[in-house]
Amino acid sequence: MTDKTKKIIAREGLVFLVALLLVLGSGYLGKPKIGLKLFTLSFLGYPAYLIIRFIVWAIRTLRNK
Question: Which domain holds residue 56?
């Protein structure tokens, strides 16, 4: 992959993740159930790790010139 392609993927991926977090976060504001939050945290633990790794990669890719 070229650097230009990597930067496009990184930028669009970050925009998508922010939009997804805004949508998911707005659903949790009205429903403070501890059991649901613990289940969600345990079920989405590894995907959250992958998302964090993607964010770090995207930031590094966009900072490189």
Answer: 3-63
Calculate Rg over the CA atoms of the chain.
Answer: 15
Number of domains into which the chain is organized: 1
28-51 pLDDT per residue, tens: 555 556 556 666 666 667 777 888
* pTM across the whole model: 0.50
Cα–Cα distance for residue pair 3/62, rounded to 1 Å: 9
- Name all contacts of 11-20 with Cβ < 8 Å and 24+ positions apart: 11/58, 11/62, 13/54, 13/58, 14/55, 14/58, 17/51, 17/54, 17/55
For residue 59, give the H/E element and its range: helix 45-63
